[in-house]
Design brief:
The chain is mainly alpha-helical. Helices cover 74% and strands 1% of the residues. The protein is built from 18 helices and two strands. α2 runs antiparallel to α3 and α6 packs across α7.
Length: 431
């Protein structure tokens, strides 16, 4: 007789094997969930005080996976296609980001006064071209401000930093690879050279971050040069994947939980008032690096916090949650008082829009192709078009959540109270 526990273990093992075949890290998705929930909670309630460090966690993860993919492509083909890399990256990032930009501008027309709408439109243009961080830094976005006086698109600055970094780093990898191919370098020498280049860049970036944090905290917070080292740490992990894959099995969960502990410590101890991003960002960056390193080659056991289905699904939603949560908070704060109805409306609308964005914008456009569109058209013509159950469930869930948000807004006693819910320091407004 097969017990329920045995069936659960078999299902978990099948899920792990599917993830490994798809190069899908369950633990990293769980880490994404921890990071984005910390950010959302911090922006909505101001608790935990260091929830904004979730973005530092995302930087490490992005640096690792992008570099890992580039190194794999280089090793297999000798010359990774920059065109394919940038095409895949744009398909991953741009569709959902653009939809949220458009919806935010449209919503601002109905919620904000005309001068503010003009400002939001300008912010959207800078965000669309991935220079929002420079735009907000030049505008002095490090000055403490109330929620209704900051841009609903302020949270696009980390996207800009990532894309600026990824505009340069792949080119360097390709250049080193071409030199290695012509010089008939060994695989070890090629990897060592890439690691050395990134090590120098990361060290220079961290040194500059230390200086800028003291000289100009606002620019240090939003500058690509002061944040590149965080993505660089992830990149260095990718270059060391061969060594990390040999970590003993018993040590993996220890490293993973230690990383979670460091991220948790950063979330509750860092307040962003001084020494951030350097040196205090070292705490969440080191934590994220430990979690990533612990799962290279094989994910750690005994890591139920990060690898359960709820955590991994929230990790899948993390990008959409990251995009929609701040516009929802800012715009609803203009028309609602800071009461239980406001918080209920924010949470239900944020998760409803995130589910819809992930399942009906982000994923379909990321994997769309002309062949798939032709096949879908043929299927519809012959009555064979089929919608997966998970997509149907997602659609219903999104509608239910958005409906709950509308109800919370409608029954709130101060539905048109024009006051901000809380004080927010824009130095910690990082998605």
């Amino acid at each position: 007789m097969v017990t329920r526990v045995e069936r659960w273990r078999e299902a978990a093992d099948r899920r792990r094997r599917r993830a490994e075949r798809a190069n899908y890290r369950l633990d990293v998705q769980g880490l994404r969930a921890v990071a984005v929930l910390a950010v959302v909670a911090h922006h909505l309630w101001g608790i935990p005080q260091g929830g904004f460090v979730g973005i530092d966690v995302f930087f490490v993860i992005t640096g690792y996976f992008v570099t890992e993919n580039l190194l794999k492509a280089s090793a297999e083909h000798g010359d990774p296609s920059l065109r394919k890399f940038y095409s895949d990256r744009l398909r991953r990032i741009v569709p959902a980001a653009t939809v949220v930009l458009i919806l935010t501008v449209v919503a601002s027309v109905y919620v904000l006064p005309q001068p503010a709408v003009r400002d939001v439109t300008i912010d959207a243009l800078f965000a669309f071209f991935f220079v929002a961080n420079w735009h907000f830094a030049a505008a002095g976005a490090d000055v403490p401000a109330t929620i209704d006086s900051v841009s609903p698109l302020l949270h696009y600055w980390p996207l800009s930093i990532e894309e600026q970094f990824l505009l340069v780093w792949p080119v360097l990898i390709v250049a080193i690879t071409l030199i290695a191919v012509r010089g008939a370098w060994s695989h070890t020498r090629w990897l060592a050279t890439i690691a050395a280049v990134m090590g120098v860049l990361a060290a220079a970036s961290f040194g500059w971050a230390l200086y800028q944090t003291l000289a100009s905290a606002g620019w240090a917070y939003l500058s690509t040069a002061t944040r590149a080292w965080e993505l660089g740490v992830g990149a260095l992990l990718a270059t060391a994947a061969g060594a990390l894959a040999r970590i003993p099995e018993l040590l993996r969960p220890v490293l993973s939980w230690a990383g979670v502990g460091l991220v948790a410590a950063a979330v509750f101890l860092i307040d962003g008032s001084a020494g951030f991003p350097a040196p205090w960002a070292l705490l969440p960056v080191t934590g994220a690096a430990l979690v990533v390193a612990a799962g290279v080659g094989r994910e750690p056991g005994f890591q139920g916090l990060l690898r359960n289905r709820t955590s991994t699904y929230l990790g899948d939603l993390s990008y959409a949650l990251y995009l929609v949560h701040w516009p929802v908070i800012v715009l609803l704060a203009v028309v609602m008082a800071p009461n239980v109805y406001f918080y209920a409306s924010v949470l239900t609308l944020t998760f409803g829009l995130a589910v819809a964005c992930h399942h009906f914008v982000e994923n379909p456009l990321r994997y769309a192709s002309l062949g798939a569109l032709r096949q879908a058209r043929e299927d519809m013509r012959h009555g064979l078009f089929h919608v997966e159950l998970r997509t149907k469930v997602a659609g219903v869930a999104a509608l239910v959540l958005i409906t709950c948000s509308v109800i919370s807004f409608a029954i709130g006693p101060d539905a048109l109270h024009h006051a901000p819910p809380a004080q927010t320091d824009t130095t910690s407004v990082s998605p």
